[in-house]
Structures are given as C-alpha cells and as structure tokens.
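Consider the subject:
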Amino acid sequence: MKKAYVFPGQGAQFVGMGKSLYEGHALAKTMFDQANEILGFNITNLMFAGTDEDLKQTKVTQPAIFLHSVILAKTLTDFAPDMVAGHSLGEFSALVAAGAMNFEDGLKLVSQRAQAMQKACEKQPSTMAAILGLPDEKVEEICASINEVVVAANYNCPGQLVISGSIAGVDAACAKLTEAGAKRALKLNVGGAFHSPLMEPAKVELEAAIAATKFNAPLCPVYQNVDAKPQTDPEAIKKNLIAQLTAPVRWTQIVQNMVADGATNFVELGPGNVLQGLVKKISKEAVTEGKQE
C-alpha cells in the first residue's frame, strides 16, 4: 500500500483557513509569523479574519494556500509520502513538503509567481471556464477552431476540463461547446487566464527567480503538472516548474500514473476537498482523506 499526498491550487481558499493550526501548534505559529516577515504584510490576518474579496486577490490567494498546505505537512507526525503531487500552485507546496526546496525559498517563489501572474492578468482581460460532459478531445478540437486565444488548461478528471484564454476566446468557445453538447460551460471567478499563452510575461519573470533558487532532490517522486511523470532530478523539476505557467495541468493523468505506480491512499493537505473528489472520479478504487485544520 503506497500513500500519495496531494496539494490543492487556487480556488480552495476560505476565510479562517489555518487559524486552528496557528493556535494549536507552536511550529505552525512560528512558520506563520515567519511568513508575515518574509512577505512584508500580515497574511495571517487576511487568512484568519479577512474577507472573501481579500483572499481572492492572486497575490494573497497563492501564498495563503501554500502556507496552509506546507504548514499542515510540517506539523504531521506521520508525514512519510511515497509520492506527492500538487494541482497548479499546489506543485510548489508538494515540492517544499517533499524537501525539494526550503520553506523560505518556496514562499518567496510563490509570492513572486502570484505577483507576476496578477500583473500578466492586468495587461489583458482574460478568464477561464469549466466545461463538463464532453471528451477532452472534443474540447481541444473546438478550442483550436476559435480565432482568439483559448486553450485547454486543467485536465481535472474525465468529463471535466477547464479552458483558459481571452474573454472573447472563452466566450466563443463556451458557446460552441454548449452547442456540441456540454452539460455545462461555466465561467470561473478567477483573476485571469492561468495555464495559457497569456501567462508568458509571468513565465519570463518567474524563470529568473526559479533559476536563482536552490533545489534539492526530493525525498520521494514528485508527479509534475506538465507531463504527469514522476521526477526527482532538481534541474528537471525547475524546468517543468517554469513551463507549468503556460502549459496545462494534467491532473487526470497524474492520478492515473500514481495509481499505476502503486498509490492506493490519497491524502489531501490544504484547504478544501476538491482534489479528493477529483481523485475518486479518476480512480474508483482509491481511498481518499483530507486534513485542513
């Protein structure tokens, strides 16, 4: 029996996240206080007692979810993963939890990533939409037929794919996908077109930051978003992290590959329970649980 730990991405945040961790664990309190210093603003106030609007800002959301996930992992007495993976932003949480980066460097990178992505979003209005009930190939085909920027961004589970692009591109694709029989084409309340070519400016900015950061071999394989394959080589991990910003998240394939490599138990660390639901839709045999103090 192998255990896989999985880490959520943007959208899982909620007001109050991490508060009981902060109040119940000395190590968690130390790490949260350190995060406030590193970031230069009091993120714990926004996490514990802010508003939904505060938490929706990409520059707040990403470090908040990262902190919740990583600090949960660090306070577990039985954290001994056979493999790890994270959805989008969650890949950074997975890498720090598995020892490929230290906490401080990971938080700085996540903060830089969030700010770079927010800047890229401000340059051109863009969005994402969840498409339910169509085969991946059909969604890809229709996106390719649109004369605007719109691409498949998150392969979440069979029959659930998120598209990303310009507002005009996503609107046109949603209309065509609905005509083609999609059960739903639901625009998401996100800051912009993540995992699309519109994130290229952020990718360029993040590349320099990642290149300057020390990475180690993780204590277990990390299944990365870009190709869904297990990776332990620090240089390959860095290359894949950079590519991740404009490439799709291959979550369906990640879970399938983890199961094929022996994972039977999946533990979600961080806010929400979205990944547990996706894992069950990808593999009926998988056992899932979550920890989100």
